[in-house]
Amino acid sequence: MSYLLKRIAFYLFTAWAAITINFFIPRLMPGDPVQALITRARGQMTTDAVQSLYVLFGLDKDESVVEQYFRYLGQLARGDLGMSFTFFPTPVAEVIGDGLPWTVGLVGFTTVLGFLLGTAAGTLVGWRRGSLADLLIPVTTFLSSIPYFWLGLLAIALLTGPDSFFPATGAYDTSLVPGFDLEFIGSVVQHGILPAATILISSMAGWVLSMRNMMVTVASEDYVTVAHAKGLPERRVMVGYAARNALLPNVSGFALSLGFIVGGTLLVEIVFSYPGLGLLLFQAVGAQDYPLMQGIFLVITLSVLLANFLADLAYLALDPRTRREG
Amino acid sequence: MSDAVLEIRGLNVDYGLGADAVHAVRDVNLTLHRGEVLGLAGESGSGKSTLAYGMTRLLPPPGVVASGEVLYHRDGGDPVDVLRMDHAQLRAFRWAETAIVFQGAMNSLNPVHRVSTQLTDVIKAHDPRSTTASRLARARELLALVGIAPDRLDSYPHQLSGGMRQRVMIGMALALEPRVVIMDEPTTALDVVVQRQILRQLVDLRERLGFSVVFITHDLSLLVEFSDRIAIMYGGRIVEEAAAADLYRDPLHPYSDGLLHSFPALRGPRRELTGIPGAPPDLRSMPSGCSFHPRCPRAMERCGVEVPVLGVPGDRRGSDRTVACWLHPVQDNRF
């Protein structure tokens, strides 16, 4: 229990450090947000408008960095991440709130599914080493070394087109009104298949490989031989003894990949113009939209931390050796 | 001697297939009698463990049993050949008839399951109709048998000492009351004090429960003390087999003699410690004739040419010991 408390304290500290860095980095960059907006408006702004922008961004007062820092913390606590330039005057929190469900829905679902399928396949392939199942290995090596955005481009080039079932861009048919009706959900699924398959194929291959390799290592452990010698059913030896131990290194890898759900598949979202956080980040970088970038980085950092925390919990549950008494 | 439980006939175990195969166990004949402790001794690489894995069909690839029979004598039934059982028969045979305690005391228990789980899953696998409560009761009984407090059932392996883990393994081996227990260097990883405690316990248990033991070790001094008969292996063959006392007093094969002179006796007259010069042979390129002859202090011309056959030596007619050495040629039945 004290172990868990220590971990929680560690994560709180890391989160604070991340937030602080997130505050300072934009302030170390040259220029200010108003200048960026003025550039975007190509000079078609009155002095009054410029002045009101300075007030809006809180840059009119002569605040010290410390004062700004505490005001920033206060705003964060209220969920206020500032205004986005690109989607001016929508608040950043709202922009992120619109993009997040798409990313979590698409990438989250495929990450979890890819892990489950890949681990199951890796278990079987590793267990039947030397059989025909080994033929899967070169295929997965190939698939896992392909960048997934390239796979996405390939899918778009080959499978989409005027008469194709698969749309090339977007997350749903824009002529529909978003809502929980059959037509809209059907459209979401139809738009999601290609990007999901792209991510699934390349991420699954990696899990197959690592799980297969761990299975081969664990299969020669003494306790697996003992399990055979005990005359246990094959399934029980494979699942309860070999896979249960081979899984452990994969679990931490999985938790890390959960953390990268939010930011890690930027390229797939760009390729498919999928309106998730990745595409937002891309747009924010292109438009020098610092508040939006800052907000997205914050979400990415926090989700990586959360995923790490989940990995710690999973390890505690799965490996008794990490549970320290006392 | 009492009747046989396990009979190994002409067992050959290779690593690899075809012309490049390494013959790790050659033409081994060995009989385990009811209730006896049969010691199997030899240097590292002499094929002891391969023999144990081969006869239980646990050999990891590329090991293959090339030929031979392992006959198991059931109570009042025909002997069955372990090497020719199908999967279901083999699964039912394992642990219920022949249990094994492995070399690695530290790694034989699954680190992620509790002791209770690992003791009860074997009972469940062989007797699916048993209840959870009865299995737990049996697990508690088994721990008591090997002198471990029943509250250790809820422990994970890493919470136990090396000696306790090996005790748990011995308890586990007795879970289904097997008639044969194969012990492959069961105490090698433990210190001598714990080693002795565990062996004492084992001898007691054997007297109470009446199972037979195949005890594999490189430590001949242990065998002299704890076993009834001893078989000495060298280069994949059995070179001498005799009652423990006979072998200790009067080793016939120069290799057995060398092994016996590589540890000091605690009592009795002082003897010189000699050891055996040289190293065990490379199994890929075995010497011609008797594989021990390059290291043998008493090698003759004949030793490098002809392989000696294991048999009752002519100069010990009528004894129940066998040796494969040209110093003690097998008695010729033609005369």
Describe this structure as you would to a colleague.
The complex is a heterodimer of chains A (326) and B (335). Chain A is built from 14 helices and no strands. Chain A is mainly α and 326 residues long. Chain A has a domain of 191 residues: MetI-like (MetI-like fold, Orthogonal Bundle). The mean pLDDT of chain A is 83. Chain B has a domain of 68 residues. Chain B is 27% helix and 21% strand. Chain B has a seven-stranded mixed beta sheet, sandwiched between helices. Chain B has a four-stranded antiparallel beta sheet with strand order 2-1-4-5, covered by helices on one side. In chain B, a hairpin with a 7-residue loop joins strand 4 and strand 5. In chain B, helix 3 packs across helix 4, helix 4 packs across helix 5 and helix 5 runs parallel beside helix 6. Chain B is globular. At the A-B interface, helix 9 and helix 10 of A face helix 2 and helix 3 of B.
Rounded Rg of chain A: 24 Å
Uncertain parts of chain A:
none
Strand arrangement within the widest β-sheet of chain B reads: 6-7-8-3-9-10-11
Largest interface: A-B, 24 and 32 residues
Mean of all residue-level pLDDT scores of chain B: 87
The description of the largest β-sheet of chain A is: none
Domain ABC transporter (chain B): 8-260
Pfam family, one (chain B): ABC_tran
Keywords (chain B): ATP-binding, Nucleotide-binding, Transport
Family (chain B): Belongs to the ABC transporter superfamily.
Short description:
Chain B: Residues 8-260 form the ABC transporter domain. Chain B: This is Dipeptide/oligopeptide/nickel ABC transporter ATP-binding protein. The complex is a heterodimer of chains A (326) and B (335). With 326 residues, chain A is mainly alpha-helical.
List keywords for this structure.
heterodimer, A: mainly alpha, 14 helices, B: 335 residues, alpha/beta, 4-stranded antiparallel beta sheet, 9 helices, 11 strands, ATP binding (chain B), P-loop_NTPase (chain B), transport (chain B)
